[in-house]
Design a protein that fits this description.
The complex is a heterodimer. Chain A is an all-alpha fold. Chain A has a single domain, classed as MetI-like (MetI-like fold, Orthogonal Bundle), CATH 1.10.3720.10. Chain A is built from ten helices and no strands. Chain A is globular and about 65 Å long. By secondary structure, chain B is an alpha/beta fold. Chain B has one domain: P-loop containing nucleotide triphosphate hydrolases (Rossmann fold, 3-Layer(aba) Sandwich), CATH 3.40.50.300. Chain B is built from eight helices and eleven strands. In chain B, strands 7-8-9-3-10-11 form a six-stranded mixed beta sheet, with helices on both faces. A three-stranded antiparallel beta sheet of chain B has the order 2-1-4. Chain B has a two-stranded antiparallel ribbon with strand order 5-6. In chain B, helix 5 links the parallel strand 8 and strand 9. In chain B, helix 3 packs across helix 4. The longest helix of chain B has 16 residues. Chain B is globular, with a radius of gyration of 18 Å. The chains are: A mainly alpha, B alpha/beta. At the A-B interface, helix 5 and helix 6 of A face helix 2 of B.
């Protein structure tokens, strides 16, 4: 317990001092994870809505697979992206391995199934309510999907946040494809892992505090936005 | 536009069977819906009234038999029949936008949508709510919006599935006056109802369904006073006449 108290005190001091090194790590973390959440949303929201309104052979299998992929192990995603991006790999010529871009790619892959699966679920619930009306008004499937996305926009905020949370919290994928290079690809989670193994507990704990605070703050803002919107639009 | 196209009605159902989940819901319905008189569809729960309406509107396809209009269902991309559901479905946007959404899908030019929608809202008596979010309206106001949304599409046939089932008397009266106005404007009204008072007020003829078959078809006064079929007589006994 003494260790924890001492580390906590040191962590608070570190945060209060506004250590530039710490800020750099936090900034890169946010940049990578927000980019991944954005990319996964741009691809995943339409896919999820399309999956909700369409009927085709193999759809149920696809739904089950998508749901299962939400639990994709980050290290496995990291490994696969590593193999793709490594010098000898099919995308090796791009020279992306051990760059923030590689980390964005890996986290996007990790977040995509979450966005698709949660969007599909929310859109399908809305579809049950809207189907008759949209058919009655003559909405084509594409139009229906767009309408559903727009009408469940408040729920989708939670979906995107779940994706961001997943990206910000994972360590396996960014560690493998980023390499945890100081000043280049070091993010909060990889720094915590490194500092803990080195025994620098105050820095690790300080980073952990920041990580949790960021996730809580982002979710709190989103919750308030959603609540205000629900009050406004019902 | 309706003047140019061949008339939509009559609508003819021939030996229509509808099955879902191994259950036969409609069992050989043959029916002609002519323009003009307000047609009510009545019958006990599970007699297939809603399914009948949905088949007419094309939301469901018959398992056997045919459902056919005499004229084309679409004119210039606009469907000539509309439906209002028991529970109004409100899109998460303003009252006005709920109406213009339907107009957009019907291919109405963007410059005309707001004007047409405004007129429809005025006719439904909710023009003052145009900019409110639709989902925060009361049940009666939502159903009036659903009617306005249908009316804006200028349907020649309006199908109503128990539009006042969940509403209090005041809201019911408001809905009924909108339906009456649509009838007077020349729209053929086909409505499912359980309410005998409403049948008196709003109906000309009744199609009485029982067990997925047409048990009787008669003018409202005749059916409510001296039904010829045992099924309709039993239904009337069970219903509270003053409700």
């Amino acid at each position: 317990m003494g260790d924890f108290a001492a580390a906590s005190r040191a962590a608070v001091e570190l945060l209060a001092s506004g250590d530039p090194k710490l800020l750099e790590i936090v900034a890169l973390s946010l940049q990578v994870s927000l980019s991944a959440a954005l990319i996964a949303s741009v691809i995943g929201l339409p896919l999820g809505a399309a999956l909700a309104v369409s009927r085709f052979p193999g759809r149920r299998t696809l739904v089950v697979v998508t749901n299962a992929l939400m639990g994709l192990p980050p290290v496995v995603v990291g490994l696969v992206v590593y193999l793709l991006l490594s010098r000898a790999g099919p995308l090796g010529e791009l020279g992306l391995l051990f760059t923030p871009q590689a980390m964005v790619i890996a986290q996007s892959i990790l977040v995509l199934p979450i966005v698709v699966a949660l969007t599909r679920q929310a859109a399908e619930d809305a579809w049950a309510e809207y189907r008759d009306l949209l058919h009655s008004l003559g909405a084509a499937p594409l139009r229906s999907a767009v309408t559903l996305l727009w009408d469940i926009r408040h729920s989708l905020l939670t979906t995107v946040l779940a994706g961001f949370g997943r990206a910000a919290a994972e360590v396996g994928a960014v560690m493998i494809v980023g390499g945890n290079i100081d000043g280049v690809t070091r993010v909060m989670t990889t720094a915590i892992a490194l500092e803990t193994s080195k025994g620098d507990l105050p820095l690790a704990l300080g980073l952990g505090t920041v990580l949790i605070s960021v996730v809580v703050a982002v979710n709190a803002v989103a919750y308030l936005l959603r609540e205000a919107a629900m009050r406004r639009y019902g | 536009m309706p003047g140019i196209a061949p008339p939509l009605l009559p609508l003819t159902l021939r030996d229509v069977v509808f099955e879902a989940g191994g259950k036969r819901i409609l069992d050989g319905v043959s029916l002609t819906i002519d323009p003009g008189p307000r047609t009510l569809v009545m019958g006990p729960n599970g007699s297939g009234k809603s399914v009948l309406l949905r088949l007419c509107h094309g939301l469901l396809l018959p398992s056997a038999g045919t459902v056919g209009f005499s004229g084309p269902e679409y004119v210039n991309g606009r469907r000539r029949h509309a439906m209002v559901f028991q529970r109004p479905v409100m899109l998460r946007r303003s009252v006005l936008a709920n109406v213009t959404y339907g107009l957009a899908l019907a291919g109405v030019a963007i410059s005309e949508r707001t004007k047409i929608a405004g007129e429809a809202l005025a006719r439904a008596g909710i023009a003052h709510l145009a900019l409110q979010p639709a989902r925060v309206l009361s049940g009666g106001e939502q159903q009036r919006l659903a009617l306005a949304r249908a009316w804006a599409l200028r349907p020649e046939l309006l199908l109503l599935d128990e539009p006042t089932a969940n509403l209090d008397p005041a809201a019911t009266m408001a809905i009924e006056s909108v339906i009456q106005a649509m009838h007077e404007a020349g729209t053929k009204v086909v409505m499912v109802t359980h309410n005998l008072g409403q049948a008196h007020r709003l109906g000309d003829e009744v199609v009485f369904l029982d067990g997925g078959r047409v048990a009787e078809r008669a003018p409202v006064d005749v059916l409510l006073r001296s039904p010829a079929s045992r099924e309709a007589a039993r239904f009337l006994e069970a219903e509270l006449p003053w409700s």
